[in-house]
């Protein structure tokens, strides 16, 4: 296969949750700093076509790209570290692979052949491996293989990686295996055996890893590194230590110190185009670690027992907090536990309140109580997607006195459907991939809080919803002081509401958190934190 693109595959061993996404993003960052154009893709071994239909408790947040793909949350890390945009092609599941193959079979494209895992599924996987590389834009494509080596369901991916070596040639192909070196307290020893076993499993599948990245709580002594090199057939300098870090944003610098980028370049026979020292990244880290102030912000939602459900929001606070040198003490509060009797005790300590995105009725009334408190007590308020819809409903009920005003999502028979199903959604019966998804333009009202934050009148943000502000109520709502300060210029769909007589009350139908990156903090998050700082001073 003639291509100048280099392919790096990252597999995982011993256990899940070792942070393959962070290692992939960190390596990508280091290669970018050396002047290469890099993208990262993730191949997930489950059968859902995409994570869009998954409950956040299954795999954490569903991350949405500009082109409207519902993807794995690791794509968020890729964008946040590399300042790039990803797309549908950057996330492929087993379900999508099988769907493609079965669709081709039904069309008769296999010309009467028996369709099999090898070669048809593996060929489909490989053609997806190479898709982004073939765009000609990238020097390096990093592919993260989800799951663990040895899982039944990831076998076809592993087999496709084995075959890819022969398509690409040894100088264009590299496998990094991320593994765990556990510390046994009783024996006071770091143990290499689980890694030996997982590399053995890779070898059985015909793959020799080139580099081992070893997650560990303690530094790896030279004899441990030597043992790993000897038993796993890797060069001693290709055993890379990945110590637990204070923040995920430390990992690129830790990997640089361990010379992961140098090992990769030498094995891929690439010579560095430049070697910047990541000054802007260090500057970001310096601010993140040395805040001059602190605020308490409440994230009110219904999936709070798994913080990964709100990954991008949490990271957006990290980026924006660093930008204003403020430590954001983010408190995740379950909206199900908030009611009209206890809301004050639950929310009293907060300098700013964010009501999170979500679906369905559970915890909804707790969110209404939360918004009422923030509006009446003039606490800075930020509502995202469902959070914005709740803000509108609360305003309708308690300011316009439209009793029982609701979203038809929560009450299909409400007498005041102030949030209603979008017209184009009414005919849709299928669940997967059918919401209003991806980037749309929004036009901002001059002088609004949002305009002030973005510093521009036209913005693009990403969406994931079915319901919208019902424009029949717009005049009434605006006359009472809640203003639609952002609208879609083509459809008039209300994208942002703000309350005039309030220090900072902004609800957005879109998801600003998806576009926040370490070096480009999202402006609404920055302004929200600043408003919380102001509120704290007044208190
Ligand atoms: N459930 C709401 C809708 O579909 C909000 C979705 C969200 O918060 N992402 O419109």
Automatic annotation (TrEMBL):
Keywords: ATP-binding, Glutamine amidotransferase, Ligase, Magnesium, Metal-binding, Nucleotide-binding, Pyrimidine biosynthesis. One of its GO terms (molecular function) is ATP binding. It comes from the Bacteria. ATP binds at residues 17-22, 74, 245. PROSITE patterns: GATASE_TYPE_1. It catalyses: UTP + NH4(+) + ATP = CTP + ADP + phosphate + 2 H(+); L-glutamine + H2O = L-glutamate + NH4(+); UTP + L-glutamine + ATP + H2O = CTP + L-glutamate + ADP + phosphate + 2 H(+). Homotetramer. CTPSs have evolved a hybrid strategy for distinguishing between UTP and CTP. The overlapping regions of the product feedback inhibitory and substrate sites recognize a common feature in both compounds, the triphosphate moiety. To differentiate isosteric substrate and product pyrimidine rings, an additional pocket far from the expected kinase/ligase catalytic site, specifically recognizes the cytosine and ribose portions of the product inhibitor. Catalyzes the ATP-dependent amination of UTP to CTP with either L-glutamine or ammonia as the source of nitrogen. Regulates intracellular CTP levels through interactions with the four ribonucleotide triphosphates. This is CTP synthase. It comes from Algoriphagus kandeliae. The lineage of its organism: Bacteria, Pseudomonadati, Bacteroidota, Cytophagia, Cytophagales.
